[in-house]
Amino acid sequence: SSFDLIKLSWELVKVGNPQLIGDVGCAAALAVASFESASLLIEYNLNLINDDELRREISPMIDKFSKECREIYGEIAEVIRKCLRSSS
Questions:
Q1: Cα torsion angle, 73, 79, 82, 83, sign
Q2: Measured CA distances, 57 to 15, 33, 63, 67 (Å)
């Protein structure tokens, strides 16, 4: 899943080849975009469902995963920026 790819990117950016760190960052950015797109579609479709209990259950899960995605991506971007600063 997109979320798994973001988590894997975080692991790779910490231990992977420094020459490929930008590629890992791009993969993470695309995974975040994929996750956010899917989340938006889920939220849209939830509005079409008449089950209030299901909506109350799923909406917080989406928010939690979305927040975690953005936090992990922020960490990845920070590692990449540090590498850029140290190489210049």
A1: negative
A2: 36, 23, 11, 16
Tokens 């890992």 map to which residue?
A: 24
pLDDT of amino acid 42: 94
Q: Under a CB-based contact definition with an 8 Å cutoff, are residues 12 and 23 in contact?
A: no
| Residue 59 structure tokens | 């909406």
**Cβ distance 35 to 6 under 8 Å?**
yes
How far is the C-alpha of 5 from the C-alpha of 25, rounded, in Å? 11
pLDDT tops 90 at residue 80 = yes
pTM of the model: 0.85
Residue type, 13: V
Burial 9-34 (b: 16+ CB within 10 A, else e): bbebbeeeeeeebeebbebbeebbeb
Which pLDDT belongs to residue 85?
A: 87
